[in-house]
Amino acid sequence: MAGSIFGRRKGLGDWRNYSGNRALRRTLTWPHLVALGVGAIVGTGIYTLIGIGAGKAGPAVIVSFAIAGIVCACAALAYAELATMMPAAGSAYSYSYVALNEPVAWIVGWSLVLEYTVVCAAVAVGWSGYAVGFLNSWGVTIPHAFAAGPHAGGIINVPAVVITMALAGLLALGTRESAFVNTLLVVLKMSALALFIVLALPAFDTANLEPFAPYGWGSVEVGGNTVGVAAGAALIFFAFYGFDAVSTAAEEAKNPGRDLTIGIIGSMVICTAVYMAVAAAAIGAMPVAEFAASGEPLAHVLRSLNWPGAAQLIGAGAIVAMPTVLLAFMYGQSRIFFAIARDGLLPERLSHVNARTGTPVLMTMVTAVVVSIISGLLPLGEIAELANTGTLAAFIAIGVSLIVLRRRAPDAERQFRVPFHLPIALIAIGGCLYLFISLPEKTQLRFLVWNLIGVAVYLAYGMRKSLIAAASRKEA
């Protein structure tokens, strides 16, 4: 261990050693975690990205949803086993630290920082589109310069910045308080989607499914854009993940073994069913080309069906409910940062928990500032694709960690065991690699640049400052 960074690993029970201002309070039950998972998963992906995904895959975006859903389901099963084995904040970062080694864990953690930060920004931008459309329907106009970033001819997306800072303030107040508000908003969100299905499904027309896969089943470049069913799945993948945010709450669950399993798997089952129903209703009700370019595709479909009042309700539902995604991912991002800093790979003061609220307030506010900058300036599509790279890297690490720990620690206590773990893990790993290859080259390049920066940070700071490195020096 002392001689090589590649030999540095944490033990299965090391998560139990944290106390004082380095430990989080156990205040959450399984209903909170299911709501956290549903809140994280159902949001920008179905309210906004369904239009962008349909533009890439045509009506076959339904298949794109299925591909992404299968890959995420396999990853969710792996998460459930690892999270109940090691109910520690940090998600895939913490599991990789135990199963693989410190450098890999750092790259996974650095990728998760990218995922969570950029997801928050994407959701803030998606929310802004619905908020601006909703306000316009009531005669309130936000000047374009302050409703869009430079990419769309504006200056800064002010609504995206405002919602980000507001939710950061709520998270800083306390975990249980945030969970209560999140649960209420999730109920409103699911009610709005149920209304959409009831109104749009009767207008289903099979003619809208032709041609079903206009750009083919793979991933090709057309006019500078990456399109096809696989390209759609690589983007739509963004719409499914979020269950991993549940695993970041492991240290705050009252009964981790039961609550995490129900939270992770339950939220995936609920959301997959809802997604498929909403996608089928939207695509069957209107030709893809007519809603693919809309910033608020579900509301646009209802307006075209002569349901203007319901369209306003859908817009209001998005405005009220999409922040649950932002809330869940900002929560998760702050816990990822917290776990990394607690291990000494980032300055330890970032891991301090506020004595009154029981939350890492400093890390929450740092997250909010970074998210505000990104969401205020960048477009939704590119943000979502970049977020996917970090998640795909984490899911690959989860699959590998599951295989490694089944071999290295076969008798370790597992509250939940993945059935047929090897094929499930291999589907997760292979599926994520396939989706990564299907992303645009510029997105892959940005991910590479991000991780090169991460390697530099690790070599300059984390490699020397990690608690395991310090313990090794004392032993020597």
TrEMBL record:
The chain crosses the membrane at residues 33-54, 60-83, 104-132, 152-173, 180-204, 224-243, 264-289, 309-332, 361-380, 386-406, 418-439, 445-463. InterPro entries: AA/rel_permease1. GO terms for molecular function: amino acid transmembrane transporter activity. Coiled coil: none annotated. GO terms for cellular component: membrane. It is found in: Membrane. Pfam families: AA_permease_2 (PF13520). The keyword Transport applies. It is a multi-pass membrane protein. Keywords: Membrane, Transmembrane, Transmembrane helix, Transport. It comes from the Bacteria. This is APA family basic amino acid/polyamine antiporter. It comes from Sphingosinicella soli. The lineage of its organism: Bacteria, Pseudomonadati, Pseudomonadota, Alphaproteobacteria, Sphingomonadales.
